[in-house]
Amino acid sequence: MTLKLGVPSKGRLMEQTFEWFAARGLKLSRTGSDREYAGAIEGLSGMELVLLSAGEIPRELAAGRIDLGVTGTDLIREKLPTWSDKVEPIAEMGFGHADLIIAVPALWVDVDTLDDLDAAAAAFRARHGFRLRIATKYHRLVREFLRDNGVADYQLVDSQGATEGTVKNETAEAVADITSTGDTLRANHLKILSDGLILASQATLFQSQTNTLSAADKKTLQAFRQMVNG
C-alpha cells in the first residue's frame, strides 16, 4: 500500500503547493503532459501523488480514496457536513487566502450590518412579494451563517461563476462570495457588510479520518507529518 496525497492539478494553487512541500524536503512534480493528471513524490517512499481539482479533494478525502489532500478551508466546510468527523487539518499553508463574505449594493447606504440586512429583506419582501435573493455557490455555509445571525426573508440563488455580476444583471439583490482583495466587488459597486465575514479561508493540508491504514502506511504518515510540521 501507499499513501495517496491529493493536490490541486493546475494554476497558481498547484505551484504554491509544490513550493510549500519542496521547502519541507518533499519534491512534487507532474509526470507526462499538462493534460495528464499524474505526478510523483520524491523525498519519502511509500507515497503517491494524485492531481485533482481543489473542489474534488474534499469528496475524495471523505470517501477515503485519498489519505491526504490540499484544498481550501471553504471547500471542506461547504462540501462536507460534519466535516470534522471526516477530515483533520494538519497544517495551514499560508497561501490561497480568501474571505467568504456577504456584500450588498453600495447604494444601500442604510445597510451596513446583518441586522440592517434582515430589516431590508423584510421590507423587500413586503414591497415586491418575493424574498430578497442572495447569489452564491456556498449554500451550506451561507445558510448556517444567516440562521445563526437571525437573518430571515431571503432566498439563495445558485451562482457558479461571475457571482459579483448578478446584482448588476438583476438576478440577485446581494451576493455571498469569496474575495481576496475586494477589487471585483468594488468594480461591481458592491460593499461588504461590516459584520459580513462568514469564513476566512486558506489552503490547508488535511488528513482523511475515514480510511484504514496498514502498519506500513501509519509509519509513512508519521514520517510525513514530522516533515511538514517541522
Describe the structure.
The chain has 230 residues and is α/β, with parallel strands linked by helices. It folds into two domains: 3-97 and 202-229, Periplasmic binding protein-like II (D-Maltodextrin-Binding Protein, domain 2), CATH 3.40.190; 98-200, 3-Layer(aba) Sandwich (D-Maltodextrin-Binding Protein, domain 2), CATH 3.40.190.10. 31% of the residues lie in helices and 32% in strands. The protein is built from seven helices and twelve strands. A five-stranded mixed beta sheet has the order 4-1-5-12-6. It has a five-stranded mixed beta sheet with strand order 9-8-10-7-11. The chain is elongated, with a radius of gyration of 21 Å. The mean pLDDT is 93.
Question: What is the N-to-C order of secondary-structure elements (H for helix, E for strand)?
Answer: EHEEEHEHEEHEHEEHEEH
Largest sheet: 5 strands, mixed
Shape: elongated
* Helix-strand makeup class: alpha/beta
Average predicted local confidence, pLDDT: 93
Helix share bin: 25-40%
What do we call the CATH homologous superfamily of the largest domain? Periplasmic binding protein-like II
How many helical elements?
7
Radius of gyration: 21 Å
Strand content: 25-35%
Number of strands: 12
> For the record, what CATH class of the largest domain applies?
Alpha Beta
CATH topology of the largest domain: D-Maltodextrin-Binding Protein, domain 2
Second CATH tier, the architecture of the largest domain: 3-Layer(aba) Sandwich
Number of domains: 2
List the strand order in the largest sheet: 4-1-5-12-6
Low-confidence stretches: none
Terminal Cα span: 25 Å
What is the assembly state of the chains in this entry? single chain
